[in-house]
Specification:
- With about 325 residues, the chain is of the alpha/beta class.
- It is built from ten helices and 16 strands.
- Helix content is about 25%, strand content about 25%.
- Strands 3, 5, 6, 7, 8, 15 and 16 form a seven-stranded mixed beta sheet that branches. A six-stranded parallel beta sheet has the order 11-10-9-12-13-14, sandwiched between helices.
Length: about 325
């Protein structure tokens, strides 16, 4: 099989297109022919060596799979050859998805939503699971509550807007003026141009000073320090960003705020919940650009570029044009 391997940490040119032996499924595992994968910030963080202690080289990286079951190991009961499936490979737990075939435990694999193409499904698995864990599992977002979503046009953000609306929340989102219409089309009730005005003042204006119940941080920087200024009493802040810079959280203490930090975990349950939203017409990932397997270095360079103009996700068509 062909795979994009990482023999060294570095820039996008660190990848090598290689011919490797096709893996075989063990007990409780499925072998999947990968039709599509996608690019996430985690992917370029791994590539440049941010998690060097957790990624033995040479490595096959990548964190999304949509494809078709090729074979199953002993004891597998939920899937059979020919089934269309999707999932996030076990992060830091073996080879990733930048390859024509991938082996995974059936426990983390779900049946692909029929309403999505392979490119769309691969663009939803990791970010969708992250959003579900952040908003439902950690923040406990409920009907009638309000939420501020930072970076709403991005890979995680554009899914978060849709999941929050499906939950019955009032959604305030930050985005550039260029992306305002796109974010509004996803269901955001209010879109704040973060380049034109301070989001703290804007949120307090929109909520008449009451603040929001939940804040989702997808961008980092000083978000943890500033977001409590828009938070209601007993509000929750959820961040998916690893932040090394110290921040003053005294304002959060005054609001009795809760902080949650999410590094998503794999399981079929979240995929099934997302599939239900897709089937009900409440959730659809946006593929803003697509590349072939050999084009992954170019895709990495694009995603890593500041203000790249992307909306949604970058999809990778691995074994077929989709």
């Amino acid at each position: 099989m062909q795979a994009l391997t990482l023999p060294r940490f570095g820039g996008p040119d660190a990848f090598t297109l290689s011919d490797l032996e096709m893996p075989s499924p063990g007990s409780g595992e499925v072998l999947v022919r990968v039709h599509a994968t996608s690019i996430n910030p985690l992917d370029y963080q791994v590539r440049r060596g941010d998690y060097a202690d957790l990624v033995p080289l040479p490595a096959i990286t990548g964190h999304d799979v949509s494809g078709v079951v090729e074979a199953v190991g002993t004891g597998v009961s939920a899937f059979r050859p020919g089934d269309a499936v999707w999932y996030t490979p076990q992060i830091f737990g073996g080879p990733g998805s930048y390859a024509e075939y991938h082996v995974a435990s059936e426990a983390i694999v779900g049946h692909k939503p029929a309403g999505l193409t392979h490119l769309e499904a691969a663009s939803l698995s990791l970010v969708g699971g992250t959003v579900w864990e952040a908003l439902i599992g950690r923040a406990g977002l409920r009907v009638g509550e309000s939420i501020l979503i930072h970076g709403a046009a991005g890979g995680v953000g554009h899914i978060a807007v849709q999941v929050a609306k499906a939950t019955g929340a009032f959604v305030i989102a930050t985005a550039s003026d260029y992306n305002a219409d796109f974010v509004g089309s996803l269901g955001a009730d209010v879109v704040i141009d973060y380049r034109a005005e301070d989001y703290v003042a804007a949120v307090n204006r929109e909520t008449a000073g009451a603040g929001v119940d939940v804040v989702l941080d997808t961008i980092g920087d000083d978000t943890l320090e500033k977001s409590p200024h828009v938070l209601a009493q007993l509000g929750r802040i959820v961040s998916i960003v690893d932040i090394a810079k110290p921040q003053n959280l005294v304002e959060a203490w005054g609001r009795n705020a809760s902080y949650h930090f999410v590094f998503t975990r794999q399981n079929r349950g979240k995929l099934d919940e997302l599939s239900t939203l897709v089937q009900r017409g409440l959730l659809k990932p946006h593929v803003g650009a697509s590349y072939p397997l050999a084009g992954i270095p170019e895709a990495h360079a694009l995603l890593e570029r500041p203000r790249n103009g992307l909306r949604g996700k970058i999809g990778i068509a691995v074994t077929e044009k989709d």
